[in-house]
Task: structure prediction
Amino acid sequence: MKYINAADVLPKDLLNEILNYVDGELLYIPISRKKKKWGTNSGSREYYDKRNKEIINQYKNGMSINDIAKKHCLSYDSVRKIVNK
Result:
C-alpha cells in the first residue's frame, strides 16, 4: 500500500469536507472492487467441492468414514466434518 497526498488527487470541495472529520490524521480508503472467494482463481474451490460431494456420496452409499479417510488421505475428523455439513 502506498501513501498518496489527498490534495494531489481529490477535488478541493471533497478534501475540505473530509478535513471536517479528519484533520491531519492518516485515513485509509479500502479497495472498492469486490473480493473473490478463496480458490476461485486457481480452481481449488471447484476441486474441493467436487471431492467433498464424492465423499458425501460414498458415505451415503454405506462406505465407512475410516475407509473414506484412507481413500482420500484425510483424517477421520476431516471426513466427519464434511459428512456432517
